[in-house]
Every structure is written in structure tokens, then in C-alpha cells.
């Protein structure tokens, strides 16, 4: 039974998490060099006593807008009796020193590092607000779990990772999150509405532009040399925007300019296609590239300029 958990990691902690423990005097030899994570005292996280070694999957995301950076398999939990075994960089939480209750030893499979990271489209294809991801670890269930699985597959992962993620998608929703030393909480039921995203549209759009950013013309590469670009819904799919999941509402962008559109740092004139950028002089005053076979709707550009852009 494969269950899916999201683990949050501060950007400053990421490399230490990915590279794993190195001290053979403090950690089991079989865990050296493999990814790991930690649960700080009082942290909202999966109870290690409920995790299944070799089965449960951790979607590990870097906070601060970086996104999902790894998909790991839980291997073993260790209760922390001596804080000396915890990396100093982990204990520093943005200037605050924290103790840790548990270490989570993992395996870097099916995807030790998602490169480039997958940044969630909150307010768009993701059916929940980012505030739901507060804490160290969160159990993903129902539509929330499906959103992560589908987005990661669309983003591009290995065949093994895709298979493991689909296994998690088919698992009945079970488990929960709580402080590791707390009693089970009262059950709360709620309903979510999932925004269905057509991944074929984004794939076709990327192929039309040869994975080049319509704003700057940049063509990124994955670690394996394959081309990489991101599809952006100009008018977001989720509430309150309810934009259409059509090619007329899509742009193909590099990760940097995708973020700039999300954060409202770009405007595009619906008629002239002249780009106005809040700080990037390299694209400010240039023209958005639109292929003759791409029927981009001027109305969604106008909506973005009026409702999302802010500078």
C-alpha cells in the first residue's frame, strides 16, 4: 500500500537532505549517502510509527517558491536522543535553533532529484491554497494527492517514478498528520473541487514552440539533455478566476518568466503584444512570440493585466 506525503524543506537545508548523512559513527552504515529528512519538536508531520518502510513515498519540496525537488521512499525512522546527530544547518530555522524528535532515513528512489524543480500552480491547476502545506509533513489524500501525482507526471519524471506515483494514486486515502507524540485528532471531513487539467494541451504547446520561452526565447535543458519548458495558464484555472483549459489560454515559458507571470511582474498588450516587465530590461519593450498556429486569446491577456499584474 503506497501512501503519499509532502515534506517541506527550507532551501538552506536541501543539499544536506539530498546528500544524506556522512558520519559513520553517528548513523547506520547502510544509510550513509542516502537522502534523509527530520521532524523538529512539535512539528506537524507524519507519525513515524505509522510509516511503512519501502512503501510510503515522500514528495520533498523546497519552500520559498522553489517547488518539488525529489520523490523518495521511506526506509527507516530513528528517534533523536542526542541533538549532536542532527546537522547544524537543520537546527537553524531562519535564525531560530530547534531540536529534532525524529530522523527519517530514505532511499533516493524513484527520483532522488527532480531537476528542474516542479513549482506548484497554486490558484491554477492545484485544487488547494498553499497554506494547506504548513508544517514539516502533510498526508496527501483524494484530489490533493491526485493533483501532485498528475502535475509531477506532466512535469516529467522517470518511468519508475511515474509508476510509483500512479501506485500512490490508486491507494485508498489513509493516514494523517500530527505531532509524533500526540494523540490521534478528531476526524474532520471536508470536500474539495478538483480542477481537471488537460496535460496533452501543454505538451502540444511546448512542441509547437520547440520548448522555447515565448517571452525571452530561452530553451532550457534537463539533466539528461532533454528540452524543458513550462506551460502557463494566463487566466488561472482555479477559483476565483476559472480560466479555460484551452490552447488560447496557454503560454510556453521558461521557469523564471513563468514565475514572473504568476507573481504579476509582466504585462503583455493584448493588441500589440508588447511586453512590459517590472524589472527585466532584457525583455521589457520586446514582443511576445506567438506562432501563427497558436490562437492566443487577447481577452486572457487583458484579464491578466487587469487582475494579476501589479507594478
UniProtKB/TrEMBL annotation:
<dbReference type="Pfam" id="PF13391">
    <property type="entry name" value="HNH_2"/>
</dbReference>
<protein>
    <submittedName>
        <fullName>HNH endonuclease</fullName>
    </submittedName>
</protein>
<feature type="domain" description="HNH nuclease">
    <location>
        <begin position="200"/>
        <end position="259"/>
    </location>
</feature>
<dbReference type="GO" id="GO:0004519">
    <property type="term" value="F:endonuclease activity"/>
</dbReference>
<feature type="region of interest" description="Disordered">
    <location>
        <begin position="19"/>
        <end position="51"/>
    </location>
</feature>
<feature type="compositionally biased region" description="Basic and acidic residues">
    <location>
        <begin position="19"/>
        <end position="32"/>
    </location>
</feature>
<feature type="region of interest" description="Disordered">
    <location>
        <begin position="171"/>
        <end position="191"/>
    </location>
</feature>
<keyword id="KW-0540">Nuclease</keyword>
<dbReference type="InterPro" id="IPR003615">
    <property type="entry name" value="HNH_nuc"/>
</dbReference>
<keyword id="KW-0255">Endonuclease</keyword>
<keyword id="KW-0378">Hydrolase</keyword>
Amino acid at each position: 500500500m503506497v501512501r503519499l506525503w509532502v515534506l517541506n524543506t527550507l532551501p538552506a537545508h536541501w543539499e544536506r537532505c539530498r546528500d544524506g548523512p556522512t558520519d559513520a559513527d553517528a548513523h547506520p552504515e547502510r544509510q550513509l549517502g542516502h537522502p534523509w529528512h527530520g521532524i523538529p519538536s512539535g512539528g506537524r508531520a507524519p507519525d513515524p510509527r505509522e510509516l511503512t518502510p519501502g512503501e510510503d513515498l515522500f514528495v520533498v519540496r523546497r519552500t520559498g517558491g522553489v517547488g518539488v525537488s525529489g520523490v523518495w521512499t521511506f526506509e527507516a525512522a530513528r528517534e533523536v536522543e542526542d541533538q549532536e546527530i542532527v546537522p547544524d544547518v537543520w537546527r537553524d530555522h531562519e535564525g531560530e535553533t530547534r531540536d529534532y524528535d525524529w530522523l527519517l532515513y530514505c532511499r533516493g528512489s524513484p527520483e532522488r532529484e527532480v531537476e528542474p524543480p516542479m513549482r506548484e500552480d497554486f490558484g491554477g491547476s492545484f485544487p488547494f491554497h498553499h497554506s494547506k502545506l504548513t508544517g514539516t509533513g502533510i498526508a496527501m489524500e483524494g484530489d490533493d494527492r491526485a493533483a501532485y501525482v498528475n502535475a509531477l507526471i506532466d512535469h516529467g519524471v522517470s518511468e519508475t517514478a511515474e509508476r510509483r506515483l500512479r501506485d500512490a494514486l490508486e491507494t485508498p486515502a489513509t493516514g494523517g498528520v500530527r505531532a509524533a507524540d500526540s494523540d490521534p485528532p478528531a476526524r474532520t471531513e471536508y470536500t474539495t473541487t478538483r480542477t481537471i487539467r488537460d496535460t496533452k494541451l501543454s505538451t502540444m504547446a511546448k512542441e509547437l514552440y520547440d520548448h522555447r520561452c515565448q517571452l525571452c526565447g530561452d530553451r532550457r535543458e534537463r539533466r539528461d539533455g532533454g528540452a524543458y519548458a513550462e506551460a502557463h495558464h494566463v487566466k488561472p484555472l482555479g477559483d476565483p478566476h476559472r480560466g479555460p483549459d484551452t490552447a488560447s489560454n496557454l503560454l510556453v515559458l521558461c521557469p523564471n518568466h513563468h514565475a514572473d507571470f504568476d507573481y504579476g511582474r509582466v504585462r503583455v498588450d493584448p493588441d500589440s503584444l508588447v511586453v512590459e516587465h517590472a524589472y527585466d530590461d532584457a525583455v521589457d519593450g520586446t514582443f511576445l512570440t506567438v506562432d501563427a498556429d497558436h490562437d492566443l486569446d487577447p481577452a486572457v491577456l487583458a484579464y491578466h493585466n487587469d487582475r494579476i499584474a501589479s507594478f
